[in-house]
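Record type: monomer structure entry
Structure origin: computed from sequence
Chain ID: A
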Amino acid sequence: MTEFAGGLTNRVELWQRVDDRHAGSGLEEEWVLVDRLLARIEPEGAGLPTEAMTLSAMPRYRVTARVGPAFAIDSELRWKGRRMVIRQLLADPALPDRVLCSCEELR
């Protein structure tokens, strides 16, 4: 990516799970909107057969965005009605202004 800002063409929402215990000792799971941002989204495929990943695995995407404090493993990105869970975060020291995420689509 030579021009970073021009490649961020998709509007996504970043959500994080907040677990809360209530009086009945139950666990309530709630998703909270953390940020709306622009990102670049590219398909990665469903998985490599050499790594014993099934063909029915959830589709994967590589997401590139500006660095923000809210990115975390198991956070959720929502884009065009799709829900994707962040499975891997990469911070390249040579490119300190961006974060690369490997995401898996939820169905």
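Annotation 1: The CA atoms of residues 22 and 51 lie 41 Å apart.
Annotation 2: The radius of gyration is 16 Å.
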